[in-house]
Amino acid sequence: MPPEESTGQGAITVAHLAPELTRGLYRDMRTARDLDTEAIALQRQGVFPAYVSVRGQEAAQVASATALDPARDFVFPTYREMAVALAYGVEMVGYMATHRALWHGGLYDVMGSRFGAINAVVGGPVPHAVGWAVGERLRGDQGVAMAYFGDGASSEGDVHEAMNFAGVFTAPVVFFCQNNQWALSVPNERQVAGGSIAARAEGYGMPGVLVDGNDAGAVYAATDEAVQRAREGGGPTVIEALTYRVEPHSTSDDPGRYRDEAVADRWRQRDPIDLLRTAMLQAEHADEAFFATVATEAAQRAEQIRDGVASAPEPDGSELFTHVFRETTEELTRQHRTWQEEVEL
Amino acid sequence: MTELIEHEHTDAAVGPRTVELSMQQAINRALHTLLTEDPDVLVFGEDVGALGGVFRVTDGLQKEFGDQRVFDTPLAESAIMGMAVGLAMNGWRPVPELQFDGFAYPAIDQIVNQVARMNYRTRGAAPMPITLRLPSFGGIQAPEHHGESLEALFAHTPGLKVAAPSDPAEAYSLLLQSVRSDDPVVFMEPKARYWDRRPVQLSEPTDPIGTSRIVRPGRHATLVAWGAMVHKCLQVAELAAEDGVELEVLDLRWLKPIDAAGLAASVARTKRAVVVHEAPLTAGLGAEVSTLITENCFRDLAAPVQRVTGFDVPYPAGPLEPQYLPTIDRVLLAVQRTLEY
């Protein structure tokens, strides 16, 4: 399924999923959309220095995260995984705090959430997922590591090293690539030799799955299968969820300089939330009253998170020094003291 | 390990826990102790399993502790360090080996951007109790990229601690200390001293992290060194003593944090200091040491701090190596300069 073929493809189905599950998917996708909209507004208002939108990628993110077990799995994100965080149960004011630049890596509890720190070196966390997964197997536990990355990150050496390690160690990892077709300004054809990230899996001795990233039901099924296989000792999987970055790379970007917005418009027409809604109505998983309720609740939750992050206190300057080491050094203590004296002047 | 047991001394003068070991064997012993005392310790890297590492530092460990605790990885330094991060996040205490110092460069992103920062980035939620064992420095006429001195790079990176032992006993206790630390430590093993055998007291570390030690007391000048250069400075001190010059040799051993107080105490006594390292001069750690001495001992100093270092050139091939590394004569000349200032 090369990118253009999937553009504007037709309806999706959720008949294979439980109604309760699809309602959960919809609720989280809708909430993520509203929160995304609020975040862009916060950037326009100058509260966020910049923001990276997940619009159009909600199905890929929410449905894959929903296939995980937040009690025993562990997510390794990059920086465009807001809807994953939301669906996985991360405390969202703490998550969004990174976009307000309050703290690199977010202010949520990374270990308690089992959701790694936000990371801008996009290939960097992928080998972490493999290490975590190998550690899980060594202890005899059943958790699965989920590495999120994009088509741009798929060019990073770390991603290839990580896939090879995972294959060699039969590690319980799912490599989940959201191919949104743009690595900032560089399109897939200038980024992904051979045209497919999923196809690379074969070379690393693991299954590779290409899935319609705007089809929540398909993403869920593909991820669920990969997660179960990993959990049962069947080793890693690469999933490539083909989607599209309908927004600019970030609020600082100007896509008019490098792409034809008509293509983006076609993808906007194939909105994953609209697709899911139609499929749910068709499968009789929900009625209009459900969607109306979700619309209200999602908007409320997004506003609460927005207000929470906008009013969150800035970290104390002392925190510059607090977390550098577990056991700090005399020199750092001296610098901390000097800083304190200068602040008090 | 049988070889080690043969050398076990029981004679009261040397002490019951004293054995004659090379540094490479002492490190092996420390890893053995660590793997025994803490089930979360994992040793991994390229060829560390069946082969026992290219320097045989991990010899026998896989056989004794199994291929779950001591294992080979594919050849990819960045993934080795990235894997260490993930293992640490899953509660393990990783002790990865990167085969040679020059091969740490491919892993710099993981070391600097990930290992060093994860505790900070997560505000203490995800500590990185990782000890990177890195065969370091020159002196063995190795191929290119097999003899580098990266201490300034690591010491400059916030979040890392850096140790460099100078003899087998130090290697044993410093490694125990490094691995037990909840902070990431780059443990730079001086390759040129791996085979240096001497009696080792297998003792628990007593000095805190970040303390230096006086290897040889003296009163006319302080030689500051770490790794293999400590041995070189001891040779210099021996020769100088023949001329009545008593040189103090200070083994810095922790390159981050640096023992500023220990340096100051020594130089306040001797009034003169010569810093010796293998790394190139410019922006080398000698500059930091020299500045610390100047800041803390300005009024005590009888002469400017001297530096004897490698040159600002890429690490040279075998025949030129002895001309690149600080020699006894170069250190003696620096001592002369500081005494005659």
From TrEMBL, chain A:
<dbReference type="Pfam" id="PF00676">
    <property type="entry name" value="E1_dh"/>
</dbReference>
<dbReference type="InterPro" id="IPR029061">
    <property type="entry name" value="THDP-binding"/>
</dbReference>
<dbReference type="InterPro" id="IPR001017">
    <property type="entry name" value="DH_E1"/>
</dbReference>
<keyword id="KW-0786">Thiamine pyrophosphate</keyword>
<dbReference type="InterPro" id="IPR050771">
    <property type="entry name" value="Alpha-ketoacid_DH_E1_comp"/>
</dbReference>
<protein>
    <recommendedName>
        <fullName>2-oxoisovalerate dehydrogenase subunit alpha</fullName>
        <ecNumber>1.2.4.4</ecNumber>
    </recommendedName>
</protein>
<keyword id="KW-0560">Oxidoreductase</keyword>
<feature type="domain" description="Dehydrogenase E1 component">
    <location>
        <begin position="27"/>
        <end position="314"/>
    </location>
</feature>
<comment type="similarity">
    <text>Belongs to the BCKDHA family.</text>
</comment>
<comment type="function">
    <text>The branched-chain alpha-keto dehydrogenase complex catalyzes the overall conversion of alpha-keto acids to acyl-CoA and CO(2). It contains multiple copies of three enzymatic components: branched-chain alpha-keto acid decarboxylase (E1), lipoamide acyltransferase (E2) and lipoamide dehydrogenase (E3).</text>
</comment>
